[in-house]
Amino acid sequence: MPNNKADQFRLRVRYSKHDRLAHLGHLEVINTINRCVRRSGLPFAVGNGFARRIRLQFSQALPVGASSAGEFFDLLLTERVDAQDALAALKRSTPPALAPLQSGYVAHELPALEAWLTRSSWGVTLLDDADVAAFMGAIGLLREQGSLCYDRNGKPRRIDLASSLVSVEPRPSGMGFLLDCRSSNEGSLRPATLVAAAARSLGQETPALRVCRLCQWHEEDGRLVEALPRA
Amino acid sequence: MRLERKDCFELIEPLLGRVERPTRYLGREWGVHEGQDGPFRACLIYPDTYEVGQPNLGLAILYNQLNAAEGISCERSYLPWKDMADLMRERDIPLLSLECAAPVASFDVVGFTLAHEMACTNILETLDLARIPLRSKDRSEDDAIVIAGGPSVWNCEPISPIFDAVLLGDGEEAIVEMCSCVRAGRGHGLARKDILRKLSHVQGVYVPSLYDLVVDDGSTEWGYAVPGHGEDVPERVMKRSYADLSRSDPLPQKIVPYMGIVQDRLALEVLRGCARGCRFCQAGMTYRPVRERPLEQVVGAAAQGLALTGHDEVSLTSLSTTDHSQCAAILHRLNADLRVRGVRVSIPSQRLDSFGVDMAAEVGAARKGGLTFAPEAGSQRLRDVINKNVTEENLEAAARNAFEMGWRRMKLYFMMGLPTETDEDILGITRLARRVLDIGREVVGRGRKSGVSVSISVAVFVPKAYTPFQWSGQLDMDEVVRRQQLLLSSAGDRDIKISYHDAEVSLVEAVLSKMGRGGFELILEAWRRGARFDAWTGEFSFERWCDAAEAVGISLHDVACTSIALDRRLPWDHTSPAVSKGFLQREWRRAMEGVTTPDCTMRSCTGCGVCPTLGVDNLIAGDRHAK
């Protein structure tokens, strides 16, 4: 059977991650969706390597505990199945908390999702009666300092806030804020890291928080390009 | 006290961000039984973490059987890792089930899988976290009935004070009968003790509290159990045997985990029982007779299971898969159907002959990593003693075949401390390894680029109940260390790598395998001193066990290393897998004479007693491939 990528069809799927499954790690999501694809009965393409993995790519890793309404994967199919039929098949084979929401075919030539989707918006909800205004102020001061130094898994890290944090604004509910972030080869900003740094600057414990990635885009010449054209 | 049944997930959700691997506690996996309507409820527990317990096929079988039974719902629970357990205690949160996040102490029946002896402290930890009294005798009328079953029940005496009832043998039918019995007893308003009496009449069920201990001149220091005064219970409880494996659901494992688990694949039980008769092997004695699942059922179940679960690997599990009379045909059919879909087929162990290598080649396809064989002993004399019916020629032919087929790394499993073992047998281990290495170099060529190497892994022999070696003492720990040093010094080639098991863990395992009911105090003391997850290398503390033993006045060394006379009554004599004591004694004597006993599925009956006692027979789907 021919197994050339050029003869295959690149189906892009937007899916959610919420409820208990927000606590899945990125590898766990990848493994779970691999199994969902196998269960779906779709004619998925398999790589040529020894491991014979499904040809499947994912957007950037979501932190453990964060939910999302805008995750993506690209699946190569050996036959062109109607995108809505494919979506229905995937929905039937996927746990509701990782439900596929939208699908469509995209061009083969596009770069890998992880590198291509560089802009994301996040909803951050502060729990435990945290003072949102104070946190907004602290984040503003951190931005003025230009960069944020933090520790991840025991290793010191630094991220340029001027480029990675595009905007911050309060949520209409008043319970937290919306972040507009940009990732690059230098790294991407995790909302929990920003909140922890703001808490430190306020001399407080990091409050309990809920983080949700709302959407992801490709950025091209200053404008945002949808990962999937809206239906 | 029975806790109220309610969804308590909101209690542990805030903790998920503070613990390792929160996925352990999420539940709601694909394939889980959604409808948990009861009204009778059982919770099955594997007393270790989710990723260790979830692959357990026995628990999956019982889970499905109970959920298929009218009016019975079954959920699962696992022991939370230390971080979560400590947080739960700190916040006064009881152990919860996975499906409905209901307190385990709210269930009617709580069942434990006894997978191995080293899980004993985890059982106490689980019950304590669940807030169920640790001892059967301390439970109140409405507490859950706590039961157990699994491969490690054959000397359950040291943990018997924990359990209200223990199921011996296959659970497919018995688990439903046990729950139905408890349900009927509760329905009729019977007292707890009377429910236990009813349970003792379910075939294969042992109710420890209905037996008294007797210590006399004919017994060991632990004594033996006899029916309590006025109790109508069997003097010897015979195991339950599920006669025809092909009548059971070939696809019990329908739940697909989110996280990586220790055996992350679709497991199909192709065969139950093994009659090879290795004299150290408890499973080989206690799972008899041999029952094969026919080819068409295996192939059909694989296709169905892969479609249902989305796994990319199917494992054909059993005690000796390559002994299945249709093994070659099954592997061939599965590979033809599945390889194109990127699905791997695996078998857990290889037979030590060329057929085993052929089967490994069938499942390994182009992959030629390492190939594992288990000669178990280094000399032909000792292999005859343990009834490992393979010869030096078998091993050499298998090794040559494997090297010719492209394998470069060979792993060989051995045991140390087997009865009658001498230094010459230890030196035989490295001699055998060098011979395999020489064959590899002969076939592939010399030099580091050839990549030929041999790894030796040496476990310490632990005498187990209901094996012909059950009377044997374990090798003294100092002597184990000396023989390990002898082994290391004799390797003589840097392409032979040697690893061996921790003698201290093996000593405690032997103690747990040989004690009687009085040994519960040791386990309790070890747990009180912090022992949990003893099967995890990084968690086991020999010092803690030594301190506990000293506190309760038990000598670990004496219990493990003392041999028992063949005519003594043993602490486990009253619970039987139906292998006769006469057969085991005969096998012990034959071992001492170095006389082997053939496999009854390939030769004639060897008189173990299982078939006539239980009214069952070996069920072989085709013709067995005798060597």
Topology at a glance:
The complex is a heterodimer of chains A (231) and B (627).
Chain A: E1 9-17, H1 26-40, E2 56-58, E3 67-77, H2 83-92, E4 100-105, H3 113-116, E5 119-126, H4 132-145, E6 147-152, E7 155-160, H5 161-164, E8 165-170, E9 176-182, H6 191-202, E10 209-220, E11 223-226
Parallel strand pairs in A: 3-10
Antiparallel strand pairs in A: 1-3, 1-4, 2-3, 5-9, 5-10, 6-7, 8-9, 10-11
Helix pairs in contact in A: 1-2, 4-6
Chain B: H1 9-12, E1 40-46, H2 50-53, H3 57-68, E2 72-78, H4 82-90, E3 109-113, H5 120-130, E4 145-149, E5 165-167, H6 174-187, H7 192-199, E6 205-206, E7 211-214, E8 224-227, E9 237-238, E10 266-269, E11 271-272, H8 282-286, E12 291-292, H9 295-309, E13 313-317, H10 327-338, E14 344-346, H11 354-364, E15 370-376, H12 380-385, H13 392-404, E16 409-416, H14 423-444, E17 453-460, H15 477-489, E18 496-500, H16 503-514, H17 520-528, H18 542-552, H19 556-561, E19 575-576, H20 581-593, H21 610-614
Parallel strand pairs in B: 1-2, 1-3, 3-4, 4-5, 9-19, 10-13, 13-14, 15-16, 16-17, 17-18
Antiparallel strand pairs in B: 5-6, 7-8, 11-12
Q: Would you give an account of this structure?
A:
The complex is a heterodimer of chains A (231) and B (627). Chain A is of the alpha+beta class. Chain A has two domains: 5-114, Alpha-Beta Plaits, CATH 3.30.70; 117-226, 2-Layer Sandwich (Alpha-Beta Plaits), CATH 3.30.70. Chain A has helices at 26-40, 83-92, 113-116, 132-145, 161-164, 191-202, and strands at 9-17, 56-58, 67-77, 100-105, 119-126, 147-152, 155-160, 165-170, 176-182, 209-220, 223-226. In chain A, strands 1, 2, 3, 4, 5, 8, 9, 10 and 11 form a nine-stranded mixed β-sheet that branches. Chain A has a two-stranded antiparallel ribbon with strand order 6-7. Chain A is elongated. The relative contact order of chain A is 0.19. The mean pLDDT of chain A is 92. Chain B folds into two domains: 9-238, Cobalamin-binding domain (Rossmann fold, 3-Layer(aba) Sandwich); 245-515 and 554-614, Alpha-Beta Horseshoe (pyruvate-formate lyase- activating enzyme). In chain B, 34% of the residues lie in helices and 14% in strands. Chain B is built from 21 helices and 19 strands. Chain B has helices at residues 9-12, 50-53, 57-68, 82-90, 120-130, 174-187, 192-199, 282-286, 295-309, 327-338, 354-364, 380-385, 392-404, 423-444, 477-489, 503-514, 520-528, 542-552, 556-561, 581-593, 610-614, and strands spanning 40-46, 72-78, 109-113, 145-149, 165-167, 205-206, 211-214, 224-227, 237-238, 266-269, 271-272, 291-292, 313-317, 344-346, 370-376, 409-416, 453-460, 496-500, 575-576. In chain B, strand 17, helix 15 (477-489) and strand 18 (496-500) form a beta-alpha-beta unit. In chain B, helix 9 packs parallel to helix 10 (327-338) and helix 17 (520-528) crosses helix 18 (542-552). The longest helix of chain B has 22 residues, at 423-444. The model of chain B has no long low-confidence stretch (mean pLDDT 94). Chains A and B meet through helix 1 of A and helix 9 of B.
